[in-house]
UniProtKB/TrEMBL annotation:
This is formate dehydrogenase (coenzyme F420). It comes from Methanobrevibacter thaueri. Its cofactor is Zn(2+); FAD. It is an enzyme of class 1 (oxidoreductase). SUPFAM superfamilies: alpha-helical ferredoxin (SSF46548). Residues 265-286, 317-347 form the 4Fe-4S ferredoxin-type domain. One of its GO terms (molecular function) is formate dehydrogenase (coenzyme F420) activity. PANTHER family: 7-HYDROXYMETHYL CHLOROPHYLL A REDUCTASE, CHLOROPLASTIC (PTHR31332), FORMATE DEHYDROGENASE SUBUNIT BETA (PTHR31332:SF6). It catalyses: oxidized coenzyme F420-(gamma-L-Glu)(n) + formate + 2 H(+) = reduced coenzyme F420-(gamma-L-Glu)(n) + CO2. The keyword Plastid does not apply. Belongs to the FrhB family.
Amino acid sequence: MSHVLAKSQNNEILEAGECGGAVTSILKYLLDEELVDGVLALSPQDDVYDAFPVFITASDDLLKTAGSYHCAPTMIGDLVQKYFTGKKVAFTVKPCDMRAVEELITRHKIDKDNIYMIGLNCGGTVSPVSGREMIDLFYEADPDDVVSEEIDKGQFIIELADGSEESVKIHDLEEKGYGRRNNCQRCDVKIPRKANIACGNWGAEDGWTFIEINDEKGQELIDGAKKAGILDTKSPSDAAVEGRSKVENIMIKMAKKNQDANYPLVSEMDEWSRCISCYACRDVCPICWCFENCELNKPYFKDESNIPPVPIAFQGVRLSHMSFSCVDCGQCDDVCPMDIPVSLIFDKLQKKYFARTGYVAGVSDDIKPPLYSPEKTEL
């Protein structure tokens, strides 16, 4: 692992991108050098609060994806394994996206040799609906006037079309039910170190991206983009490296505090009593992939006599199958029509398993999940 500061040598990217435009420049390098068939990226739609996945094959189209969007995860791993098998593809990943991709690699659904993962440090994501409401209530600004937003030093900062900035403490927003999504508040993986490189503004100088190079492939990316003349790099100071580490540790400490506050509050059976077995949580999960052979589709799990079905017949099976692989992206919570905190329940169990084994889904290298581990006998 090593660190560099990087910024684009392309003026258009410098203007459109965040903190030096290094990420967009690296993606451009991959396309221009034909190292990938395409780039899976996010493009804003009606506003900056939400973005839509797009597959880009011409580097000129990358400009419309430049910038930072704190939108919810967008099933990157699921899209790659469903639609890009056999193709060489690059994509950006938040930590939960990275974890999902790693779990799918473990299941042989994604070929690691065919992908480039460009990691993005993440302090949390915001729901597009509550995000707009939050801007209106707390910033007294028109949500449509927001051109960019950023989470930094405990503040949620927005930039308006006139160039002015407004900020509110994350704590104050979340105390009122706004700010980051619930799963983001307790997430303790802030830097995607299983990606080839991890990029962000933590510890960076103005106009530069701080990049952690995590493997040989990541080093080749930086060296290649620099040789191609699209990327400029320099070494960060010791103070910059320390500053980045300090931000990460503060974010993790906040997450642990939220875990301590929320785990005791959730009772699995009380929550599951509202389940109607609509399968939305299963269908949106980036780790669930065997829909055709899913155990939950078997006739003996269909209980027509009970409406709604007995919760344990659905949620209990999902818990036993998937909780140890949950990447805490929170998408199951987003789609549940009964407001069941599915990911909170899964994460609560996973933290118990972590306390005994040290295993973290999508992060751990040398420890296997319970179904494949000798630890299961002891447990």
